[in-house]
Amino acid sequence: MPRRLGDLEDAVMTRVWEWNRPVTVREVLEDLQKERSIAYTTVMTVLDNLHQKGWVRREAEGRAYRYEAVSTRAAYSAALMNEAWSASDNPAAALVAFFGMMSPEQRHALRDAVRMVQADEPAEPAPAPPQEARTEREPPGPAERPDRAEPAAEGPGEHPREPAGLPDGAEAREADAQEVPRAGPGDSGR
Question: In the Cβ-directed half-sphere of 85, how many Cα atoms lie within 13 Å?
Fold first, then answer.
C-alpha cells in the first residue's frame, strides 16, 4: 500500500484528481505556481515518485508524459485511515479516539457508511440444529453410507443385491453372500 503523501505530493495529486484527466507536468506546474514558486524539475520528480508509488499511471506523449490518477481521493483517504489504524498497538482504542474527534455530521456519515457495508454483506447462516445422541447402537442409514444407498426404482437388476443377468436362484445366493449378520438380543455383539 502506498505511504502517506507529503504536502507537495498531496498538492500535485489534488490537481490530478480535480482535473480527472491525464495531465502533463507543465499543466500541474502552471497551476501550482499560482500559489507558490516551484521548479519544473520538482513537479516532474514528484509525479515520477507518485508513479513509482502506484498513485498515478503515465503514458508517453511525444517527449513528455501524461499522468492520470489510479484511484480516487476517497480510496486514498481510506488507505490512509487503514494504514494508521493497522499501525496502532490498540486498534479499538484508536477507533474510539478517532470517533471522539468526529463532528456530529461525520458520525452520522459513519453510521450511514456502516449500514451500506452491512447491507452488502451476506446474512449469517443459521446455526445447525443440535444432533440427537444415539442411545443404542444402530446400523448406519443410507445417508451415512452412500455406498449402500437404495436406488429409487427396484426392478430386476436395479437393486444392489440383485445383479442383472444371473441365472435363477443365483440372485438369492448372491444376496445371501452380501448380507451382514446382525447381532440378536442374546449375542455378545461380536
Answer: 13
Q: Which three cell numbers stand for residue 38?
A: 516551484
- Three cell numbers written together for 50: 507518485
Helices (H) and strands (E) in the chain, counts: 7, 2
Burial of 38 (0-12, 13-18, 19+ CB in 10 A): middle
Distance separating alpha carbons of residues 84 and 79, to the nearest angstrom: 9
Q: What is the pLDDT of residues 123-156, one digit of tens each?
A: 666 666 666 554 555 555 555 444 444 444 444 4
C-beta of residue 181 within 8 angstroms of C-beta of residue 169: no
Which of 59-87 are b and which e, b meaning 16 or more Cβ less than 10 Å from the residue's Cβ? eeeeeebbbebbeeeeebeebeeeeeeee
87-117 residue pLDDT tens:
899 989 988 998 899 999 999 999 998 999 8
Q: Give Cβ neighbours of residue 137 (< 8 Å, ≥ 6 apart).
A: 189
DSSP run (H or E) holding 67: strand 64-69
**Alpha carbon distance 65, 57 (integer Å):** 10
CA distance 38 to 26: 11
Cα-based torsion angle of the residue sequence 83, 85, 88, 89 in order, rounded to the nearest 10 degrees: -120
Q: Which DSSP category does 147 fall into?
A: G
